[in-house]
Amino acid sequence: HLHHRRGEGKDFSIIVVAEGMKMRALEPAMAVAAASEKRDAFGHVQLAKQGVGDALSTRIEQATGFETRVTVLGHLQRGGSPSPVDRIWATRLGVAATDLLADRKAGVIPIRRDGQIAVVPLRDVIAETRRVPRELYDLQLVFG
Q1: Where exactly are the structural domains of the chain?
Q2: What is the pTM of this model?
């Protein structure tokens, strides 16, 4: 795709990658990064620090010879300033999470469902990989 765009006279491309992205070709580079990266209080590698962007950048440069740059976006760049509703829900969910911890309830997570706070098992939230819907992927090709 990058070579095709270059052939059309477009000397730039923007590639957006989710921090939890998995790609077999990048696993060796990401494993090295994960071995040396910061971990959270539970011992899990902090996904944003795994270097998926750097690993992909290196791979693209090796495969194409094109110069790449990596920019890791912060919260404000990714979603803009939170609205009052965002702040209220963040506070409510934070209070619910704190209450769960105070009650020694582990393995659950507060969520927003139908305008209310519900508590669900964490395994239900992480049980499946959520993929970008095909129609959204196809749509980006139109604007590519």
Answers
A1: 1-80, 82-144
A2: 0.47
